[in-house]
Amino acid sequence: METVNTTTTVWARDSVKGEKRDLWTAMKRGFRCRCPRCGDGKLFSSFLKVGTNCSTCGLDYTPHRADDLPAYLVIIIVGHIVVPVVLWVETNYSPAIWLQMSIYLPLTFIAALALLQPVKGAVVGFQWAQRMHGFDEIAPGEIPPV
Question: In this structure, what are the phi and psi dihedrals at residue 60, rounded to the nearest 5 degrees?
Fold first, then answer.
């Protein structure tokens, strides 16, 4: 008969080997379009193209899988900001429809473009902090291409 181990192993953040990765710090650094590890190097090589690695600490950015999540989050954020403003203005002032469209459409477009890159950076920071998609030190050797 086998013996059963009765000792309880408690897994905590301190018991995991490897560097400590604070989620909120990594997301804030990503939101500022900086490297989630060091906060100094640039995260993007162009508007929405994530660079290959950090110029300061050498972190490899290629495992990230942001995909469509940043766009969905931007739609939710901008919608939660613009829609209450539109409803408030409509119920209190009721301006002409051409005036509303000439204000709300550019406002929505500019807000979405302004938030898209920072939100994508925050998603990459989230993935790095959670060791997702190959951001782990002991990542599998073969990660399928995007």
Answer: -80, 120
Residue, of 144 and 52, whose pLDDT is higher: 52
Q: Is residue 1 part of a domain?
A: no
Largest Cα–Cα separation, the chain: 83
Residue type, 137: E
Question: CA 130 to CA 138: how far, in whole Å?
Answer: 13
Q: How many CA atoms lie within 13 A of 42 on its CB side?
A: 10
Contact 111, 78 (CB under 8 A): yes
What is the count of structural domains for the chain? 1
Q: Which domain holds residue 91?
A: 21-129
Average pLDDT over residues 58-65: 91
